[in-house]
Design a protein that fits this description.
alpha/beta; five-stranded mixed β-sheet; single chain
Length: about 170
């Protein structure tokens, strides 16, 4: 509805049409990603995982999706690095998973939540070698190759792990 009038007016060139289509597509993907983050935030709260920060600034202008237990702990040089956790959120990972590798320099073991229905064993090995633990809803585990299913973390497992660490 928001762009229907623009579309009805037509386009002067294919390039103009493609630019508009890409803009619409990118906005849609951005909204879907943000919606997923908000749903995860609500789930964390409902399951008692209350110690986290969203979109906080780490080094430079980097903004990881979730930092546990807090932005303050992340920026406190006396807080042990191994007690910091990060969850990156990507509706699909494809090649974009590499973007999360340097969002929080102090965190070496990164968790990446995705709704993507499977990755190749080669891509999974690359992620694992880079220090990424793939977090996938249990219902999607069967969509992943047998060889890597046992190495996937469920969202419930992730929440349980962190509530065990950051319990009030």
């Amino acid at each position: 509805m928001h762009v229907l009038d623009i579309i009805r007016k037509g386009f002067r060139s294919v390039d103009e049409f493609i630019a508009m289509a890409n803009s619409i597509s990118n906005r849609r993907k951005s909204r879907a990603g943000r919606s997923l983050e908000l749903h995860l935030e609500q789930l964390f709260l409902e399951y008692g995982l209350t110690h986290f920060a969203t979109q906080c600034i780490t080094e430079g202008n980097k903004k990881p999706d979730f930092i546990f237990p807090s932005a303050e702990a992340y920026h406190d040089v006396t807080f042990p690095d191994n007690n910091l956790h990060m969850l990156a959120v990507k509706t699909t990972c494809k090649d974009r998973w590499r973007q999360v590798l340097n969002e929080a320099d102090r965190i070496k073991s990164i968790h990446l939540f995705t709704l993507q229905e499977g990755v190749s064993p080669a891509q999974f090995r690359e992620m694992k070698q880079a220090g990424i633990t793939l977090v996938v809803p249990s219902a999607l585990h069967k969509k992943y190759p047998d060889a890597i299913r046992s190495e996937l973390m469920s969202l419930g497992g992730f929440i349980a792990k962190l509530t065990g660490i950051y319990a009030d």
